[in-house]
Amino acid sequence: MPAVAIVIPVLSDQRRLPGLLESLQAQERLPDEVIIVSARALPEYAAEFSLPIFAIKNPSGAIPASLNIGIGAAQSEIILRMDVHARPFPDYTRLCLDALEGSGADVVGGHLEIVPGGEGPVAAAIAVAVGHPFGAGDARYRLQSPPRAGDVDTIPFGCYRKTVWERLGGYDESLLANEDYEFHWRVRAAGGRVYFDPAIRVAYYARATLGELARQYFRYGWWKAQMLRRHPRSLRWRQALPVIALAAVVFLILISFFSEAGRLFLFLFFFFYLFSLALAAVPTAIQRRSFVLLLALPLAFATVHFAWSAGAWANWLTGGHSSRRI
């Protein structure tokens, strides 16, 4: 069996690291290396786990740079990229190796089973929203009723041979988010394949509050726009639609000050959007028998849509320059 290294970049939040290490220790196929790259010193509790843990400091804390540092230090043939918010199922490593061998793809990955990141109806609504077609579009790996296995544009927490990473020159360290998608785009642009297998499962903690969700998706939108400057053909309809919608809202608000027709179209837009929110939220709330979820879920959907779009437009309008780290 080929040796496997699990590389974990830790940006700032180490609270969930013990849970991840517990899930790695429970793997049917134990990793040969667990490489944690963080800006901070590794907590003492890490020594309590019977895993071959190697800690590397990266003062910048940037995830793409941490991935490159960790993968570069790995001695194993197979790389599994992991995240502190993830909890891979016990058969995760074994199934990744099977899929990598059986599919012949360059990168393989599986399904996110998204769980609430906190208590209460808002956290529950966020977990539903980021795994619902109205919030995730056609991203197979996020949909909570995952489709069949097959080639896709991207997957979470990719598994691949280290030679693939070497051939492509690693992750783009100028992108502080969206680095996985950009890496997978270059895999496919070079003639490779990215393969999704729904049997490969990993639980993932969503953000706990609407504020955290807004910051997360604003960041996603900002760095997606940055990536599009280099790879414009990587844009997908699920990403373009909310950006267009936000521009339409701003345009209609402006012309509504001067035109009766503008006010009418603005009303129709919001009516259609609210109707769409209801169509997405009501069946889920009924299925879960939760009136509170019916109220919270539209807020979570709207936060995903408008925070992502605002991040993308903020990047384009500022030329990709910011006075603070996003």
Relevant terms:
alpha/beta
First CA to last CA: what distance?
41 Å
Strands, count: 9
Proportion of residues in β-strands: 15-25%
Shape: globular
Major sheet details: 9 strands, mixed
pLDDT under 50 segments (min length 5)?
Answer: none
Gyration radius, rounded:
21 Å
Q: Enumerate how many helices there are, as a single number.
A: 11
The share of residues in helices is 40-55%
The structural class is alpha/beta
What is the overall pLDDT average?
89
H/E order of the elements?
EHEEHEEHEHHEEHHEHHHH
What layout of secondary structure does this protein have?
Layout: E1 4-10, H1 17-25, E2 33-38, E3 53-57, H2 63-73, E4 78-81, E5 86-88, H3 92-103, E6 107-115, H4 121-129, H5 133-136, E7 150-151, E8 159-161, H6 162-168, H7 179-189, E9 194-205, H8 210-228, H9 237-256, H10 260-288, H11 291-317
Parallel strand pairs: 1-2, 1-4, 2-3, 6-9
Antiparallel strand pairs: 4-8, 5-9, 6-8, 7-9
Helix pairs in contact: 4-11, 8-11, 9-10, 9-11, 10-11
